[in-house]
Design brief:
Blueprint lengths: L1 H18 L1 E10 L10 E4 L5 E3 L5 E8 L3 E5 L6 E4 L6 E6 L9 E3 L4 E3 L7 E5 H7 L15 E5 L8 E5 L11 E4 L2 E3 L9 E7 L15 E6 L6 E16 L8 H14 L18 H5 L4 E13 L3 E14 L3 E18 L4 E14 L10 H7 L28 H6 L1 E21 L2 E20 L15 E24 L3 E24 L23 E21 L3 E12 L8 E12 L12 E15 L13 E7 L2 E7 L11 E14 L4 E13 L2 E2 L20 E2 L1 E17 L4 E19 L5 E4 L10 E4 L6 E4 L2 E4 L3 H5 L16 E3 L14 E4 L5 E11 L2 E11 L2 E4 L45 E3 L2 E12 L2 H6 L4 E15 L18 E2 L6 E11 L1
Parallel strand pairs: 1-7, 13-16, 46-50
Antiparallel strand pairs: 1-4, 2-3, 2-5, 5-6, 8-9, 10-15, 11-12, 13-14, 15-16, 17-18, 17-51, 18-19, 19-20, 20-21, 21-22, 22-23, 23-24, 24-25, 25-26, 26-27, 27-28, 28-29, 29-32, 30-31, 32-33, 33-36, 34-35, 36-37, 37-44, 38-39, 39-40, 40-43, 41-42, 44-45, 45-48, 46-47, 48-49, 49-51
InterPro entries: Beta-barrel_TonB, Beta-barrel_TonB_sf, CarboxyPept-like_regulatory, Plug_dom, Plug_dom_sf, TonB-dep_OMP_SusC/RagA, TonB-dep_OMP_SusC/RagA_CS, TonB-dep_rcpt-like
Subcellular location: Cell outer membrane
GO cellular component, one term: cell outer membrane
C-alpha cells in the first residue's frame, strides 16, 4: 500500500512538473542575411495557441510546456520546428528561403502569384518602408523606392494633391494610375499609411486584366488584416513634429532695391525714385513675414488585430493634424480615418472577407499658383514697404510702377477665408466558395460614397485699385455627392497534370457604376462683412447674373475578362489575358473595346545545364505585350448637352438661359495603350543581391484630346461652351529600368540593406491630327503666347520659345545682327540677343523652337538601412536628371522687387553676357526664351531616421512586446541649381506642367515618434 502512495505522489509531481509553463521569447531572422522577419506565424504544435513576430522579428509566448514544439511559418520560407526544453529561454531562429516558392506572393489582380512565377513588370513596397518614411500621403512613399514611378507635388501645402506617373506621360488627358484597394477602385491619397500592408505596382501588360482602367498602370493596395491563431496585438504609433520652409529665394533688400531702381529709372531717362537711399537698411524680408517656423504636425494611429483558427480581425483609427508653413491654420489639413477588417471561415468551403474604411478630412487653402498667389506677391512686392502703416493697418502697395496685381501678401492671407469638408465611406464585401476540388468561385462588392461641402468668403476690401479689390462681399457654397460601386464575380480553376504541368484559369465579370450630383450657389452682401456670417441663407444682395448651378451624372462600365496561366515545373511560364469593356462614355458603335495581352517567362536557373552556380542563384527572363484601353475623359462627350450659359433678348429684356456646352463628337472611341516589356530578374551571392531590369515601349494611340480647335462659326467661347474631344494623337514612351538590392548580416550586432534604382525615359509625340499639327498649353507672363506644346517629333509639353545668344555689348553688335524689332522693341546695348533660327535675317515668331523639356531623362533612388544592436538608421533619397523648368514667378513691371542674380547684370561693355540691363524703357528682354528656362535637375534627401528599440526583456516587464523611439527629418535638403522653390514640382498638366508660378515649397519636417506594441 505504501508503494501505491509513493506512485501516486510521483505521478502527481510529474504531472505538476509537466504542467509548469515557460515564457519563450526570441527573434526570427533570415538565413544568410540575418535580417529580422516580421509577421512570422509562431504556433504551439497541435494547439490553437500562438503569436506573430513584430516589426523587428521579435516574439514572446507565455506558458509553454516543456516538450512542446513551436512551429515557425512564413510565406516564401521553409517551416521550422523547435522543441521546447527546460533550458529554453531566448531563441534565435533562422528561416531558410524555400526554393520552391522563392520570396513572397505578389498580388497581380483577381488573384496572386508566387514572385518567381510573375512574368510582368511588377514592383512591391512593403509596410516596413511605409513605417520608416512616415508619409502624410502614401504616394510620397513611391518616390525613389519604385523604378519607373515619378511622383510630383502640385503644392507643398498640407493636403495638396500629388501626381503619379508610371513610365512617363502618355497622353495630354488623365495620366494617373488607377488604385485598387483590396479589390475595388479607391483613392490612394485618402488612406492611412499605417493601414497598408503592401503596395504592388503593375507597370506593363500585366495590368491588362483591368482593361480600360489599366492604361496608365495599376496600383494594388493590400491593407493589413489579422492573422489566424494569433493573440490580440495592440499597436500604437505616434509622432509629433514641427515644420519650416525648405527654401527661401534670395531677393534684394531695401537698399539694394532702391539702388537698382534708381539705375533702371536713369537708364530709362526718368527721375530717380530714391534720391537718398541712406537709412533704408535691409527693409522688409517679405518671405520671412509670410513663412512661419515651428509649424506643428501631429499624427496618432492605433490598431488592434488578431484571430482564431476561424476568424481574423483588424481595427484601426488614425488622426493627423498639419498646419501650413504659410498662413498656419489658413492652409491647414486635418484627417481622421477608421477601418474595420474581418475575415471568417464560415465553413470548410465558404470564406467571408470584408474591409470598410471611413475617412474625414478638413482642408483650408490659400491661393498658391500664378499671378494671384501669396508667394508671388511676397517675392515681387518691394522690400522698402512695411507690412503695416502707422495706423496698424496693412500697407497698401501702390499701383504706380507695381501694376494692379501685386498686393501686400499678409493682407491677402488675412482676407482669405475658405473651408472644405470631405467625408467618405468605402470598402468591400467578398465571398470565396470552393465549388469543387480545384475550383474557387469568388465575388466581391466594392463601394465608394463621399460627400463634400465647401464654403469660401470674399470679403469687401480695397487694396488700392488692384484686381483683388472686392466691391461687394459674397459667399460661395457647394455640396457634392459622388458614388460608385463595383461588383466582381469570377472563378479560378487550378490543376496539376502529370509530372510538372500546372494550369490556372480565371474567368469573370465586372459591373461598375458611377453617379453623383453637385450644387453650387453664391450669395452677395454678407452681414457685417464677416466670415462668421458667411452663409447664403443670411445674404441679402441681388445680382442680375446667374448665381447658382448644378449637375448630375451617371456613367457605367460592363466588363468580361479571362486569364489562362501555364507553367512547366516552374521553369516555363505562360499567361494570356483578354478583357472586354463596354463604356457609356462612347456613343453607339464605339462603346465596346477588346484588350488582349500575353506574358511569358523562363526560369533559366532551373535548367539542368545551368548547374549549381555559387554566383547566380536565380535567373528569370520574361516578356510581355498587350493592349489596354482608356476612357478617362469628361462624361457625355459624344452628345450635345445644355451645360453652358447664355443671355437672350426676350420681350425687350435680357433673360438668362442655357446654351450648348461642349461640342459633341459622335465618333469618339477608345484610346489604346500598346505595352511591350522584356525583363531579367537575378539573385546573386546566396540571395544577398537582387537585380531587376526592364526595357519597355509604351505607345499610346488614338489619344483622347480635349478642346480640338474647330470653326468659329460653331461657337466655343460662350460660358460653359468648349471645343470637342477627338481621337487625334499618338505618343510613345520608351526606356530602361534597373534596380539592385543588397542585404547582409555582417555580425550578430550589425546588418545592412541598400537599394538603388534608376529609370531612363524618352518621350516622343508621333502624331497630332488636329489641323495645326500641335497643341498649346500653359501660360507665361501677361499676354504672351502659350509656352508649351505637344508637337510631332518632340516630347509632350516641351517649351516653345526663343533661343538666346548672350547680351549685346555695343551698337556694332546690334547693327550686325538681324533686327529684333518684331519682338516689341529695338535692341540696345545690354539687351538679350536672340538666335535667328530659320536664317531669314529677321527675329520674329518664326524663330521660336524647342528650348527645354520638363520630362526628366532619368530618375533614381538610393535607400539605405543599418541596424546595430538596438539602434536602427535609414536614409531615402531621390534624384531627377535632365528636367527643365520655366521661371515664371517674376513680374516684369518696373517697380517689382528683383532676385539677387540681377546684381550680375550688364552695366557696360564687358560687364555681363548672361543677365541683361535694367531699364524702364521698352525692351524685348521679357519675351519667352531660354533665359527663363533652367535645368531643374536635383538630388533630394527625402528622409533620414534614427531609432532605438528597448531590449525585449525590459519591455516585457512593462507588458510590451515592442517599444521603439525614433527621430527623423523629412525633406532634409535638396541639391539643385534651380533658382525656384521646388525643382520637382508640377501643376500636373501634361502640356504646361513644368512652369513654375511660385510653387508652395514642400516643408522640411522634424519629428520624434514612438512605436509601441502590446
Amino acid at each position: 500500500m505504501k508503494s501505491n502512495y509513493l506512485l501516486i505522489i510521483f505521478l502527481f509531481l510529474s504531472a505538476f512538473g509537466y504542467a509548469q509553463g515557460y515564457d519563450i521569447g526570441g527573434v526570427v531572422k533570415e538565413t544568410g542575411s540575418g535580417l529580422p522577419i516580421p509577421s512570422v506565424n509562431i504556433q504551439i504544435k497541435n494547439t490553437n495557441k500562438g503569436t506573430t513576430s513584430d516589426f523587428d522579428g521579435r516574439f514572446t509566448i507565455k506558458g509553454v510546456s516543456s516538450g512542446s514544439t513551436l512551429v515557425f511559418s512564413y510565406l516564401g520560407f521553409k517551416n521550422f520546428e523547435y522543441k521546447v526544453t527546460s533550458t529554453t529561454m531566448n531563441l534565435s531562429i533562422s528561416l531558410q528561403q524555400d526554393s520552391k516558392t522563392l520570396d513572397e506572393v505578389v498580388v497581380i489582380g483577381y488573384g496572386s502569384q508566387k514572385k518567381r512565377q510573375v512574368t510582368g513588370a511588377v514592383s512591391v513596397v512593403d509596410s516596413k518602408t511605409l513605417e520608416i518614411l512616415k508619409p502624410v500621403k502614401i504616394e510620397q512613399a513611391l518616390q525613389g523606392t519604385v523604378s519607373g514611378v515619378n511622383v510630383t507635388t502640385t503644392s507643398g501645402a498640407p493636403g495638396a494633391a500629388l501626381d503619379i506617373r508610371i513610365r512617363g506621360i502618355a497622353t495630354n488627358g488623365q495620366n494617373g494610375p488607377t488604385t485598387i484597394i483590396d479589390g475595388y477602385v479607391g483613392e490612394l491619397g485618402l488612406l492611412n499609411p499605417n493601414d497598408v500592408e503592401s503596395i504592388t505596382v503593375l507597370k506593363d501588360a500585366q495590368a491588362a486584366i483591368y482593361g480600360t482602367i489599366g492604361a496608365n498602370g495599376i496600383i494594388l493596395v493590400t491593407t493589413k488584416s489579422g492573422k489566424k491563431n494569433a493573440k490580440t496585438k495592440i499597436s500604437l504609433n505616434t509622432y509629433t513634429g514641427f515644420q519650416e520652409t525648405s527654401r527661401t529665394l534670395p531677393t534684394l533688400n531695401a537698399t539694394e532695391y532702391a539702388l537698382l531702381l534708381n539705375e533702371s529709372y536713369a537708364n530709362g531717362g526718368k527721375a530717380l525714385p530714391y534720391p537718398n537711399v541712406s537709412g533704408l537698411g535691409k527693409g522688409t524680408n517679405w518671405q520671412n513675414e509670410v513663412f512661419k517656423t515651428g509649424v506643428p504636425i501631429i499624427s496618432h494611429d492605433l490598431s488592434i488585430s488578431g484571430g482564431s483558427d476561424k476568424v481574423t480581425y483588424a481595427v484601426s483609427g488614425s488622426h493627423l493634424d498639419q498646419e501650413g508653413i504659410i498662413g498656419g491654420g489658413k492652409s491647414g489639413f486635418l484627417r481622421n480615418t477608421a477601418r474595420v477588417s474581418l475575415g471568417a471561415d464560415l465553413s470548410e468551403k465558404l470564406k467571408l472577407k470584408t474591409n470598410v474604411i471611413y475617412t474625414y478630412f478638413n482642408r483650408k487653402s490659400l491661393n498658391e499658383n500664378g499671378l494671384a498667389s501669396v508667394l508671388f506677391n511676397a517675392l515681387n512686392i518691394p522690400s522698402t514697404l512695411t507690412p503695416y502703416n502707422s495706423n496698424g493697418d496693412f500697407t497698401l502697395a501702390p499701383t504706380t510702377g507695381l501694376g494692379i496685381e501685386i498686393i501686400n501678401p499678409l493682407a491677402q492671407i488675412a482676407n482669405t477665408y475658405n473651408d472644405y469638408n470631405f467625408k467618405k465611406l468605402n470598402g468591400n464585401f467578398g465571398l470565396d466558395y470552393k465549388l469543387f476540388k480545384d475550383f474557387v468561385l469568388s465575388s466581391s462588392m466594392g463601394f465608394n460614397t463621399s460627400n463634400s461641402k465647401s464654403r469660401s468668403f470674399a470679403k469687401q476690401v480695397n487694396y488700392g485699385g488692384k484686381v483683388f479689390d472686392v466691391a461687394r462681399s459674397s459667399v460661395s457654397q457647394s455640396a457634392i455627392n459622388d458614388n460608385d460601386y463595383s461588383f466582381d464575380i469570377y472563378g479560378t480553376y487550378t490543376k496539376k497534370l502529370g509530372e510538372g504541368h500546372n494550369f490556372a484559369a480565371t474567368i469573370g465579370n465586372t459591373i461598375y457604376k458611377q453617379w453623383g450630383n453637385g450644387l453650387f450657389a453664391t450669395g452677395y452682401d454678407v452681414p457685417n462683412n464677416s466670415w462668421d456670417f458667411a452663409d447664403i441663407s443670411l445674404t441679402t444682395g441681388i445680382l442680375n447674373a446667374k448665381t447658382n448651378g448644378s449637375y448630375s451624372y451617371d456613367e457605367r462600365r460592363l466588363s468580361y475578362f479571362g486569364r489562362a496561366q501555364y507553367d512547366y515545373k516552374g521553369k516555363y511560364l505562360l499567361s494570356a489575358m483578354i478583357r472586354r469593356d463596354a463604356s457609356t462614355k462612347f456613343g453607339p458603335g464605339n462603346k465596346i473595346g477588346y484588350f488582349p495581352s500575353f506574358t511569358a517567362g523562363w526560369v533559366i536557373s532551373d535548367e539542368g545545364f545551368y548547374g549549381e552556380s555559387k554566383f547566380i542563384n536565380f535567373m528569370k527572363l520574361r516578356g510581355s505585350y498587350g493592349t489596354l484601353g482608356n476612357d478617362q475623359i469628361p462624361n457625355n462627350g459624344y452628345i450635345s448637352q445644355l451645360t453652358g450659359e447664355a443671355t437672350y433678348v426676350f420681350d425687350g429684356a435680357l433673360v438668362n438661359g442655357s446654351a450648348s456646352g461642349q461640342i459633341p463628337n459622335p465618333d469618339l472611341k477608345w484610346e489604346e495603350a500598346r505595352k511591350f516589356d522584356v525583363g531579367l530578374d537575378l539573385k546573386l551571392f546566396n540571395d544577398k543581391v537582387s537585380i531587376v531590369s526592364d526595357y519597355f515601349i509604351d505607345t499610346r494611340a488614338d489619344l483622347l484630346i480635349p478642346n480640338i480647335p474647330v470653326s468659329g462659326i460653331i461657337g466655343i467661347s460662350a460660358p460653359g461652351a468648349s471645343a470637342p474631344t477627338v481621337n487625334a494623337g499618338t505618343v510613345r514612351n520608351s526606356g530602361f529600368e534597373f534596380s539592385i538590392d543588397y542585404k547582409n548580416k555582417f555580425s550578430d550586432n550589425f546588418s545592412m540593406s541598400a537599394a538603388y534604382n534608376v529609370t531612363f525615359l524618352e518621350n516622343k509625340v508621333l502624331e497630332v491630327n488636329n489641323g495645326t499639327g500641335f497643341i498649346e498649353g500653359g501660360s507665361f507672363g501677361v499676354g504672351q503666347p502659350a509656352p508649351s506644346r505637344m508637337e510631332v517629333g518632340q516630347p509632350i509639353g516641351y517649351f516653345y520659345g526663343y533661343k538666346t545668344d548672350g547680351i549685346f555689348q555695343n551698337q556694332a553688335e546690334i547693327d550686325a545682327h538681324p533686327s529684333q524689332l518684331a519682338l516689341g522693341a529695338n535692341a540696345a546695348p545690354g539687351d538679350i540677343r536672340y538666335v535667328d533660327v530659320n536664317g531669314d535675317n529677321v527675329i520674329d515668331v518664326k524663330d521660336r523652337t524647342n528650348i527645354g523639356d520638363p520630362i526628366p531623362n532619368a530618375t533614381m533612388g538610393f535607400n539605405l538601412q543599418l541596424n546595430y544592436k538596438n539602434l536602427d538608421f535609414s536614409a531615402y533619397t531621390f534624384a531627377s536628371v535632365g528636367n527643365d523648368m520655366v521661371r515664371n514667378y517674376e513680374r516684369d513691371v518696373t517697380d517689382a522687387n528683383h532676385f539677387r542674380y540681377v546684381l550680375d547684370r550688364w552695366t557696360g561693355e564687358g560687364t555681363s553676357n548672361s543677365v541683361p540691363r535694367v531699364t524702364t524703357s521698352s525692351t524685348a528682354n521679357t519675351v519667352f526664351s531660354d533665359y527663363f528656362v533652367e535645368d531643374a535637375s536635383y538630388l533630394r534627401i527625402q528622409n533620414i531616421q534614427l531609432g532605438y528599440s528597448l531590449n525585449p526583456k525590459y519591455a516585457e516587464k512593462a507588458g510590451l512586446t515592442k517599444l521603439r523611439l525614433y527621430a527623423g527629418v523629412n525633406n532634409l535638403y535638396t541639391f539643385t541649381k534651380y533658382k525656384g522653390y521646388d525643382p520637382g514640382a508640377s501643376n500636373g498638366a501634361p502640356i504646361g506642367g513644368g512652369i513654375d508660378y511660385g510653387f508652395y515649397p514642400i516643408p522640411r519636417t522634424y519629428m520624434v515618434g514612438l512605436n509601441i506594441n502590446f
